[in-house]
Design goal:
Blueprint: E1 2-6, H1 10-22, E2 27-32, H2 35-47, E3 54-57, E4 60-61, E5 64-65, H3 66-75, E6 81-86, H4 91-99, E7 104-107, H5 112-131, H6 138-146, H7 162-174, H8 181-188, H9 192-204, E8 208-213, E9 221-226
Parallel strand pairs: 1-2, 1-3, 3-6, 6-7
Antiparallel strand pairs: 4-5, 8-9
Helix pairs in contact: 7-8, 7-9, 8-9
Amino acid sequence: MTVLVVEDDPVAAAAHALYVGREPGFRAVGTVHGCADALRFLERARAAGRPVDLTLLDLYLPDGHGLQLCGTLRAAGHTTDVIAVTSARDLAMVRQAVSAGVVQYLLKPFGAAALHDRLERYARYRDTLARAGEATGQDEVDQALALLRTPERTALPKGLSAPTLDTVAAVLREARTGLSAAAAGVAAGVSRITARRYLEHLVDSGLAAREPRYGTVGRPELCYRWTGGGGGGGGEGIGPGSA
C-alpha cells in the first residue's frame, strides 16, 4: 500500500517515511510539508492512475489545518485514508478528526512500535474489506472496524509514569543543544536522578541519544539529545515536531 507523509518538520517527515518503508506491504511514495503540496501530490497520483492508499497527516501545517485538508480531499473525491499524526491532545480535536473521516489518531511523540501497530491493523482492515463482499451481519461489520482499534499501550518500566515521561520528552525536544540530567530535571520539575531514569528510558527506546559533554575540568558530563526518532508518550515517540 502506498503512503504519503504530510509533515511540516523535515526531520520528522523523514523519520515517518523511514518507518513506513520498513513495514512489510507499505511504501512511502512521497513526503510533503503543507496542505497545498499534499493536495497537488494526491491530485497528480490520482491523475496518473495511482491513487495514494493512506496519508499520514500532521494537523498543524504552515498553510492550513490538516482537518480542513481532509474536507477538501473528500469534497474532491479522494479516497485516501488518513491517520492523523499530531501532538494535539484536545479531545474536541479528536472528535473533529473522527467527523472528518480520520481512521486513526496517533499522538506525538511515538515510536516505531506504535506506528507498526497502526499500520499492521490498517493493513488487516483493508485486507478484510477487500476479501469481503456483503457483510453477513453486524458482527462482521464490528470485527472489521475493531481491527482499527489499538490495545492499551505497553506498560512503562516499574517506577516510571506516562505524564512525567511526556514532560521530560517535551523538555528534551525543545532543547536545541541537548540537556544534562540536572538541567532536564530543573526544566521538568523533578530531581536529577529521576530525570536521568526517564532520559535513559528514552535512550533505550531509541528516542534519544546520550553523549559526553567535555568541560574544562573533571569528568565529562552526559548530555541527552532528542534524535528525531521520537520520545515520551508512554515510551512511544517519533519525530520532533510539536504539531
